[in-house]
Design goal:
- The protein has three helices and seven strands.
- By secondary structure, the chain is α+β, with helices and mostly antiparallel strands.
- It has one domain: Peptide Deformylase.
- The strands form two sheets. It has a five-stranded antiparallel beta sheet.
- Strand 6 and strand 7 form a beta hairpin.
- The chain starts with about 25 loop residues before the first helix and ends in a 14-residue tail after the last helix.
- The model has no long low-confidence stretch (mean pLDDT about 95).
Length: about 170
């Protein structure tokens, strides 16, 4: 079933820290299926449970092969939904990169955000098995963005300030 996407900078569901999942029940499996159905029409690369109205620590990542040559995490194939329950970042690189981000919950906004370029993480899959490892590039960025959602943080909170255009300067 396709679920409605929660939107808005001040939406209380999006601003609430999500609860850990203690037991992987049928309801959790259904939520993961519904999240997969819900992200498809929007062509999103990531979705967190709060974005569909559930304040539990569940995310999914889908790196599109149309735009990327590799996912940035060996266990995540391009164009496949990768579900993570109770994800936690365990290490962040000192190296950072700036990239424009958007969000299904803030459809009218795009902004540059600085994030670590590689991370290490842990979590569970839908079978309750421990997963994780080192990730880089787009997977690392999406994972950080989605974990922010689980903590009630939106990318707009981390966006670089917008600057006024300067006359005579060439912009790309």
């Amino acid at each position: 079933m396709i679920l409605d996407i929660e939107t808005g900078l001040k939406n209380p569901i999006l601003r609430t820290k999500s609860e850990p999942i203690d037991s992987i029940t049928r309801d959790i499996h259904k939520l993961a299926r519904d999240m997969k159905s819900s992200i498809r029409p929007h062509h999103g690369m990531g979705l967190a449970a709060p974005q569909v109205g559930h304040n539990v620590r569940l995310i999914l990542i889908n790196v599109p092969g149309e735009h990327f040559e590799e996912s940035g995490f060996e266990a995540c194939a391009l164009d496949q939904h990768y579900v993570i329950i109770n994800p936690e970042l365990t290490a962040l690189s000192k190296d950072t990169a700036t990239m424009e981000e958007g969000c299904l919950s803030l459809p009218e906004y795009f902004a540059d955000v600085i994030r670590p370029t590689s991370i290490e993480f842990t979590g569970l899959n839908l079978k309750g098995e421990k997963i994780g490892g080192k990730a880089f590039g787009i997977f690392a960025r999406i994972l950080q963005h989605e974990i922010d959602h689980l903590d009630g943080v939106l990318f707009a909170d981390k966006a670089l300030p917008v600057k006024l255009k300067q006359s005579g300067k060439v912009y790309v």
